[in-house]
Amino acid sequence: MRTSHVIVVMGVAGTGKTTIGPLLAARLGVPYAEGDDFHPQANIDKMSAGVPLDDGDRWPWLDAIGAWAQGRTGLGGVVSSSALKRSYRDRLRAAAPGVLFVHLSGDRELIGSRMQQRQGHFMPTALLDSQFATLQPLQADEAGVVVDVSGTPEEITARAVTALQALDTPSSPTA
């Protein structure tokens, strides 16, 4: 399945955005951009110190991701971004109106255990609760899908591809 859509893989820290994003991009035949690479150093320093980002910290980061997405409009691409709040997703949509979201979702226990196993990432497990507190799940009027993060990366990616294909399939007329 090749896509011309730009897809934002979203969710709280530890859901697997950095793992699933490249796998999804490969399956869709489009480039991948790591959302963490768009953070200014000040954001990384703040999170490394265990301090959650506020909206003022996130706007420039979201604008940089939005600019990348806008540059891929009509060409396709996958980028990771927590995109925790509706206002953050709205900002990304303002930059790239056709963007689709893949919300990686799972329970706190599973995600926390995965975060504890990560090596060398700047986001400490201590910030996971603030991520869940900030999260505004993808709404029905937002273009995208919710994908459960239980299982292997390959299983999660396959679920994402299937869900995205269903978005591209027109609904059957009802009699």
UniProtKB/TrEMBL annotation:
Pathway(s) of this molecule: Carbohydrate acid metabolism
Keywords, ordered alphabetically: ATP-binding, Kinase, Nucleotide-binding, Transferase
Catalytic activity: D-gluconate + ATP = 6-phospho-D-gluconate + ADP + H(+)
EC number(s) recorded for this UniProt protein: 2.7.1.12
Transferase recorded as keyword: yes
A Pfam family hit: SKI
MF annotations from Gene Ontology: gluconokinase activity
Enzyme class: transferase
Family per record: Belongs to the gluconokinase GntK/GntV family.
UniProt-listed NCBIfam families: therm_gnt_kin
Stated name of the protein: Gluconokinase
